Please model this.
Amino acid sequence: MNILAIETTGANASVAVINEQKEVFFVSSQDNLNHLQNLMPMIEKLLENCRLTLGDITCIAASEGPGSFTGIRIGVSSVRAMAQCLEINTISVPTLKSFAYNISYEYDGIVCPILDARRNQVYGGAYKWDEEGNCIEIIPASAYDLKDLLKKLMPFTLDNEITFFGDGIKPYEEIITAWSKELQDISFNNNMRIKFANDDIRLQNAKSVAKLAYDIYKDDGMKSFWDLKPVYMRKAEAQRKLEEKLNG
Amino acid sequence: MKDNKFLTMAIESSCDETSVALLTEGRNVLSNVISSQIKVHQAFGGVVPEIASRHHLDNINTVLKQALDEADARLDDVDLIGVTYGPGLVGALLIGLATAKAISFSKKIPLVGVHHIQGHISANYIEHKDLKPPFMALVVSGGHTNIVDVKGYNEYEVLGRTRDDAVGEAFDKVARVLGLGYPGGPLIDKISKKGNPHSVEFKRVYLEKDSLDFSFSGTKTGVLNYLNSQKLKGEEIDTAGVAASFQLAVIEVIVNKAIYAAEKMRKNKLVLAGGVAANSLLRDMLNKECKRKGIELFCPSPVLCTDNAAMIGCAAYYKYKEGMVDDLTLDAYPNLPL
Model:
């Protein structure tokens, strides 16, 4: 069994293969946001590196979003067309959940990925590894005003370390740090521990997408490419404005 | 169905039509499936790029399957994939490109990127089986207004282009201010048949002497100013008359410049292409003028005038025959020059 995994939702694209023994092979691009140009050549190189042909691929996993709309579409349309050609199934990998796989399942804190959605919003959620090594979603993945997401995190701050991931750290690091200070002051919660993931594990990557895809595969979560859909989590701007106008 | 004929598959997604076609020997269309988003964008009064991109992604695999089914072909039979790589909306282009590249890689099929305008011109090779370069081409659409000297299947010289709006764009804008809706071209064409084209004499913009370039924004502003002044005077607006007058002012210039270009470059063939090629006044006037000047006129049928993949497949075939093949790094170019 070999799953090919594709991650194109962020600034850097990457591809990975995971096999039955959970060995992961990985190729990434440093070329920012040129996913359309890089994707197929990266897959070609990856297969060469792990001495596989397309015929050895059992199914293909796409990071479904949220993230860059354009990036999501490049990934999903490429995976769909490949699966249509190769007559194999796909796996739709929730991008935010995949961040939990950037860190060991032995981590007992909370993984909180935040992706910059502009307009003071983030695509975010929160995840925790349980004792059996299952990844549990404790705050559902969605588009949030940053302050609303932080409010939802508050009850967990008493007895959990929280690690933030994602490209949302850069614009919002100061706000989050200020929030945690304020919370400590008013709640006398001296145990509050907030961390920002190191650069090497901060962003989405195909290794984590492959690992989550593996778990979905083992849960019989494969689907036909016809059912592989992008997950934008936000309407197109023009659509939103039109609906606002129509609803007064 | 494979009978040893060279089979080309093509994908077009540069604006608001998702299309996949299959052709044999470059000119014989087996299927040409077009999924139009016109209805989706009507609510917005024009094409919204993000929404177009989303719909392309939703539609493309279905369109692809339908094109294969209608042609009774399998992906394994395909010898070549052609795909539009510009110009157009970048988010829209990349759906076609990502799909084409994934197929090319998965099935080891050669890939050829096609310029959208070269596709429009090539629509005429499908319609007119004996047509060959050289000839003069007039390309008129929602995004383009070009006079092109076609010297060979892959050799072009652009002699004239618009300096502001494309002709189709001008039609859309005028249709909007006249309250006709979207898309403007067919609506103005239709209502103009009921109006007097000389009810208002809008300015014909020819630019410098001998120039083959176009400018439509002045004529468009002329319409706006006229409508405003009528409103101020409290006079009723004769929509059909204004539409017909605007249409004549624009089409007259286009026809005269195209004929002038053909004569100047000593071309006895004029080829019409692009979405606005379906405009009935343009066809009538070109017909008359070409007859008068002894120029042979070629027009594609309406389905080949709009954006479609068959024309892209035809262009890809002639590029491939001359050894022009792309690799998997092929990118989208929203402003690709011809």
